[in-house]
Amino acid sequence: MNRGCLTVIIGPMFSEKSGELIRRCQKLIQYGRKKVYAYKPAEDNRFAREDIVSRIGYTLPASSISCELTSEVTAAILAETENIDVIAFDEAQFFTWPIIELVEQLVYRGKHVIIAGLNTDYRGKPFGHIGDLLAMADEIVKLTAFCACCSDPNATFTQRTINGRPAALGPLILIGDTESYEPRCRSCYVSPQQVAERITATPSIV
Predict the structure, then answer these.
(1) Are 78 and 87 in contact (CB under 8 A)?
(2) CATH of the domain at 63
(3) Which of 16, 20, 91, 182 is catalytic?
(4) pTM for the complete prediction?
(5) Closest Cα partner for 13 from 168, 161, 184?
């Protein structure tokens, strides 16, 4: 049996995680002569419904599956990837807990699994089950972006914004793009708790 492995690609928004996933998959197809199958959350159709698309123009055909993974869906994935060498999942932070067991089974079956996802949510906390996937990973690829405030190339945070200003607490999942998010370095990142404290500390104007 082939030895399975898990590669996890993480970073903030605008760090080209999807681009790295696509690049690796295309390299494995072209040079490694591997059979590759990719999945993406159906709920995230910002750029395409059936393709994984990077901001710099890379694309990879993918099947859209619901973030709420059921036993039927995971069984179907295991069946349809039986003769596949490499299985990729984009935006993995959105998938529910069964993604962990699914990835475990795929790896134990000798598959190379490639995961791409946000490292943290807009609160600065580990997003979804990314932390669990990192703990299981054989290889971790940590990407950074250019800070939207100071242009530091080592931005690791995703700042949620409203009208260009840091947002206070809100729904954990809010699918959006440049209108709602920007990458920031640690020095420029403002947590929603800090936003709330600033609002509370500012006296009302009557």
Answers:
(1) no
(2) 3.40.50.300
(3) 91
(4) 0.91
(5) 184
